[in-house]
Amino acid sequence: MDKVxxxxxxxxxxxxxxxxxxAREGYRVxxxxxxxxxxxxxxxxxxxxxxxxxxxxxxxxxIEDEVVRLFKRVDAELGRLTALVNNAxxxxxxxxxxxxxxxxxxxxxxxxxxxxxxxxxxxxxxxSPRHGGQGGGIVNVxxxxxxxxxxxEYVDYAASKGxxxxxxxxxxxxxxxxxxxVNGVRPGYIFTDFHALSGDPARVSKLESAIPMGRGGQAxxxxxxxxxxxxxxxxxxTGTFIDLGGGR
Length: 248
Prior knowledge:
A seven-stranded parallel beta sheet has the order 3-2-1-4-5-6-7, sandwiched between helices. The chain has eight helices and seven strands, in the order E-H-E-H-E-H-E-H-E-H-H-E-H-H-E. Helix 1 (about 15-25) packs parallel to helix 2 (about 35-50), helix 1 (about 15-25) crosses helix 8 and helix 3 runs parallel beside helix 4. It is of the alpha/beta class. The protein has one domain: NAD(P)-binding Rossmann-like Domain (Rossmann fold).
């Protein structure tokens, strides 16, 4: 069976690393991005250099019309979907809860919770045998913040990832009998530019001493876990999580 993967938020960081590793594993790759076409284009070039078919699709994955458009392009240009990585997400500036606006909270939940659920919905319409599919795998990119709560920093982000974890467990049980596995990874302090969104691009370096392993993680280390969960080597794993937090 041909392997076709959609990776949301794949123009940088964990998403980009996952796209490259997926290409090495023989997947046809859809690189989703929301704003940075130049960065997505660089990832596309690297993926195609590995000899696989790939496309970039600009879409806000929290808007269903745009999700539908993306999946239709995948159908037409890459083939039937077999894997989805819900990686796109956002975070706000470091803030206590009492200073968080309604706009911030709604954006956080729409991007980090509604978006992955919408993407999973449209993936299921392609993976499920009830719709002509042959099964598949979904990996949701959560965070160790879901376990730790991120007090005084971004409790809203932690809460959104906690919701994503609950969704992962529930969906895994719902579709387990259809040959579809749903799992999650929980990265911790990973060296990507994601931390710049919270106002502290050097955050990982500053906090390395508090990590039991004494170092921050690399995007490629998270990508390895994602691709393993999608592989046949993880064939009996569903509704589970790999924590990638260096012991936190």
